[in-house]
Write a structure and sequence with these properties.
mainly beta, single chain, two-stranded antiparallel sheet, 8-stranded antiparallel β-barrel, elongated
Length: 215
C-alpha cells in the first residue's frame, strides 16, 4: 500500500473519529425529536462540500485507494417522509466527486495492436498499443434518494440508494472510459449549528467527510 493510500485512510479514520466524538459528546445534552414528525429544520436546499475517499477499489482496472474532493446538493421533496409517525424526510441528492487513485499495481505491457500469422495456427503480436493500468483519476456523478431521520436537535442520519455515473482515465492508457455503478451509502450529521452540520458518509463507490450548509 503506497504512502498516499495510507494517508487517505488515516485522514478518513481521523475525521470519522472526530465526528463520532463530537456526536457522542453532544448526545447527552440533546433533546430527542424522533417521535415528533416535522420537528426538523425547514430548508430549501443543502449544499455539502467535502473530502472524498475511495476506500474500496473503483470500478474498472485500477486498484487501491484514493483521495479527492466533491460537492453534493440535496433538495427536500417530502417534509414528512415515508413513516408518518416519526421525524423523517426525503430529498433528492446529486453532485460530483473527483478521486485520484495511486494504484497498487504498476502498468502492464498493454494490449496487442497488431498480429501476424505464425506456425501451428497461432499468431504473434508485433506491436503493443501502450501500457495499461497504474495511477488513475475518476469523476463520479452520483444521483440518489436521501431518506433522513432526525433523531435530535444535534444528530440526524440518512440512507442513500442511487446510481453513480463515472469517467475514468488511467495515466498509462490512451483513452478514458465511462460507466455506471449502483451506489449505496449511510451517513450522519452532527448539527453544531441549526443549519450547519459536520457530515460523514460511508458507502460505495465513495465515502466522504464534509460540512453541510442548509438554506
Amino acid at each position: 500500500m503506497k504512502y498516499k493510500q495510507v494517508t487517505a485512510m488515516r485522514l478518513f479514520v481521523a475525521g470519522s473519529g472526530v465526528f463520532c466524538c463530537s456526536m457522542l459528546s453532544s448526545t447527552a445534552f440533546a433533546q430527542s425529536t424522533i417521535r415528533q414528525p416535522g420537528a426538523h429544520p425547514d430548508y430549501m436546499a443543502e449544499l455539502e462540500p467535502h473530502l472524498s475517499f475511495g476506500v474500496f477499489e473503483p470500478p474498472g482496472r485500477p486498484t487501491g485507494m484514493g483521495i479527492g474532493a466533491g460537492l453534493r446538493l440535496t433538495i427536500p421533496i417530502l417534509k414528512n417522509g415515508f413513516v408518518p409517525t416519526i421525524n423523517n424526510s426525503v430529498g433528492i441528492s446529486f453532485g460530483f466527486d473527483w478521486v485520484h487513485y495511486d494504484g497498487d499495481d504498476g502498468p502492464s505491457l498493454g494490449y496487442c495492436a497488431s498480429r501476424v500469422p505464425a506456425p501451428g495456427n497461432t499468431t504473434v503480436c508485433t506491436s503493443l498499443a501502450g501500457p495499461l493500468g497504474g495511477p488513475s483519476n475518476y469523476l463520479y456523478f452520483p444521483g440518489a434518494m436521501q431518506w433522513n431521520f432526525w433523531f435530535s436537535d444535534k444528530f440526524s442520519a440518512f440512507g442513500e440508494p442511487g446510481l453513480a455515473l463515472y469517467y475514468e482515465k488511467a495515466q498509462y492508457e490512451p483513452h478514458g472510459s465511462v460507466g455506471a455503478v449502483p451506489m449505496l451509502a449511510v451517513g450522519g450529521r452532527w448539527h453544531f449549528l441549526r443549519l450547519a452540520t459536520l457530515t460523514l458518509r460511508v458507502g460505495y463507490p465513495v465515502m466522504s467527510l464534509g460540512v453541510s450548509m442548509m438554506f
